[in-house]
Specification:
Pfam families: DUF5107 (PF17128). By secondary structure, the protein is an alpha+beta fold. It is 35% helix and 20% strand. The strands form 9 sheets. It has an 8-stranded antiparallel β-sheet with strand order 14-15-16-17-29-25-24-20, with no helix packed on it. A 7-stranded antiparallel β-sheet has the order 13-19-27-26-23-21-22, with no helix packed on it. A 5-stranded antiparallel β-sheet has the order 1-6-7-8-9, with no helix packed on it.
Length: 986
Amino acid sequence: MMTDAARQSSEATDPADGPIVLPEAPAALRPTLDAGGAVAWDEPICIRTYEADEPSRYPMFLDHRVYQGSSGRVYPIPFTERIAEQSSMREWRAVHLENRYLRLVILPELGGRIHVGYDKVNDYDFFYRNNVVKPALVGLAGPWISGGVEFNWPQHHRPATYLPVETSIEEGADGSVTVWCADHDPFARMSALHGVRLRPESTVVELVVRLHNRTKERQTFLWWANVAARADGGYQAFFPEDVRYVADHARRALTAFPEADRPYYGVDYPALAEDVPDAARIDAYRNIPVPTSYMIVDSQQDFFGGYDHAAGGGFVHWAERRVSPGKKLWTWGDAPFGHAWDAQLTDDDGPYVELMAGVYTDNQPDFSWILPGEAKAFTQFWYPIPAIGAAHQATPDAAVHVDRGDAVTARFAVTSPQPGATLRLLDDDRVVATRTEDLVPGVPAVITGESPEGEPAVDLLDRDGRLLVRWTPSRVDDAGEPWVAEEPPPPEAIESVEELYLTGLHLQQYRHPTRSPLGYWRAALERDPGDVRTNLALADHDYRAGRYEPAVGRTRLALARLTRRNANPLDAEAFYLLGLALGRLGRRAEAEQAFGKAGWDGTWAAAAGFALAQSLGRRGQNRSALRVLDSLDGVVGHDARRTALRAIVLRRLGRGGEARELVLTALEADPLDATLRHLAGAEVAAEGGLLLDIAIDLRDAGAVAESLAVLERAAAAPITAAGNQRPIACYLAAALLDEQGRAEEAAQHRSRARDCDASWAFPHGLDAHDALRAALAADESDDVAHSLLGMLLFAHGRRAEAARHWDEAVALGSREPVLLRNAAIAAYNVDGDEARAWSYFELAIAAAPADARLHYERDQLAIRLCHGALERLERLKAVEPLVLSRDDFTIEYVTLLTAEGQAASAHEILSTRRFRPWEGGEGRAVAAWDAALNALGLPLADPPATLGEARARYVPPAAKRADGVTDYFATSLPELLLFSRVPGDE
């Protein structure tokens, strides 16, 4: 039942009525709030929403999709392709934080993003408040919304940005309130915890983040906060004054900042400035006419932000640059093309810019490494600033803007009350002007004095003389322009084995979408078959793809050279990797020996020690497992997996009370860790992926019965846009039962797996791989296991093997449309068998004749098979309602109509049908519109708003070169590349 507050919110979200009205704090919290404290509570709000359709039933193997400059692979996440045309009111779960100065709203169902950041003193939304939830197809898996603050990891845009997170509210002893949000990334299953914190009497929004690699493999990641701010002609992005240059994605291009000194994103800013003063100032939103990114190249400062000169307000971001160097602006551009994209993302709230903060990264793509079991913790700070202007220096305590001329004027803004604060203007170290004032957040404080003869400085001190903020002119060494990235040469043009290895490592680390590291590594081994680093890189690659025997062979080859003269090498990663592969092969005693040796190296001691203790625990060697865990305590950092393992072992030793106390203490530091919560008996969401993570943790610790119970929950978990784990849960249970000698029960679980609803069941990872292999070892006629294993192998680069499994499933009699479509893609991409590919699509369409996606993909195949335009058109006319249900299919259709002399019909469709553009498909609808006008002999005219996009004034960087080869630095591609004969990893 809707509450009164939610109903008020619902009424206020009608576009005619203005912004969302937020509910008042509950009566029980009002005394704390009135006394200046901070409060948090959970209460839904109603927001007008354009719902995302159900995801496609087909896995998207976007092997070479370019997305944000890195890989756009989306598997195993289901891909959403359409957004509702009409909005409706929807109740969204919301968590609210409030104190005297600020009001925040977090939406747990949308990745735990901050949706509202409101300055109560100045009646100003310092974060862009989008009063509708209106996704566009911009996200990695489809839907993405603008506004507020989106927390992106382990890549951009966050895979789980449109998926729910777990939350809890913590009240600190210091009066602070923190809303914790946690999720497991859908790819590697690493976990992330971010806490949004408010303190009493403070305007600072503090974000506390812990990233945990809960896997046994080294992983790559980046972390960016996307902070949106409402933009108009007066909005300015400000960076520290020592920023001289900014760079495009991957540092493929460079320009001076704040005044561009060369063409950038196709815009000749110096030429524009010849006619319009300040037109080259790219810190001003009004001057950027095209979609544009720029990231600072370097700065020694810790702050940046944005300021709206018209509204007289803005915000500051502050974080220690030692871990948070990334500072970036993104805009769709202040021009019709960008405004059309803005309209796709909101109804009435206008354009915005994004001011992004990167941690362990300063560019996109720019990935860092995180070791197995490693946790990385950091904080970020934002706060609103009143009418002081763009900040020239800032700390978490205060910001200052300085005007310099005949006089110096400094305007300060504080983040907490500062009675008796001292404002000072200095000439070198001599104070030339000073005043004392009681400062409060939201009200600027000003000091003015004559321009100093020496070096000017301004500062603000609290009443005890503690420095709150200090500005001095930045000294910038003129060391010339920073470096710009270059495309690496092909393997045959690289001279050294080391350079071949490092080039491959770069491509792997940065998840390059169109260039594989394998060619470089294989070339390195052709020149030196025993090279340690390259053999280990390929062993790691084989291991992650489920090729365990080759991984063991390559690792042993590396170890032969590594230990030929030194039995105790500098880096013991080879031993650790050998242990992982041997463990997967069931050779646990050998694996434990390898882990023991890997533990001699401090870099790998934590990972190897945990793996060793886990293996011992699984074999029932409980006291041995505890001794290993004891050796890690106090030596290596926090790892929730280690706590959970210790608790499980302690319980088996009859020390249940000690185990429970251990778990409860750990939950104080990591309140949403899924396995710890399970062990504590706390409620864990019925989300399939989360339950599988817990079950695998329990299984690997030897808690068989408990693991089977959780797998039972996973096998009954709801099927959602996050995917479907039901079949894999059954197969995992069957494999575990077989290990226990319970063959009859295992067979029953395999039968259950075959009977499960397989919608959005896209298996991923080595545990699923091993369970499906075990299922086929037990029953080669299991067509469902063949189909699922084929998906997993195809996604892991083992495309030829995947094709064989799909063919076998078809041969066993399955006519499931997802299987047939997958087999068709493999027949074309892997085997080059065009007739079989077409035949599979025909069978799939016969099985699902009303499936628009199948018809669209068959037509894409028809293009590659050189079917004539008229043949294609007649085929599409027969299913026109299905064609018109998809934007991409409709564009293909009207293009054919125009080409075949039916431009009037094409024009009618383009004039009356509503389109929603997709990132990577920009310009296709306008091109179809222009072609229809040209064919009709009509003058070129702007497309209608219903077309969803406007004509671009400038040509963006081309994704493909003139020779048809994808540019190495491409950041997007028009096609999804389902049909691509680029070799896999075999």
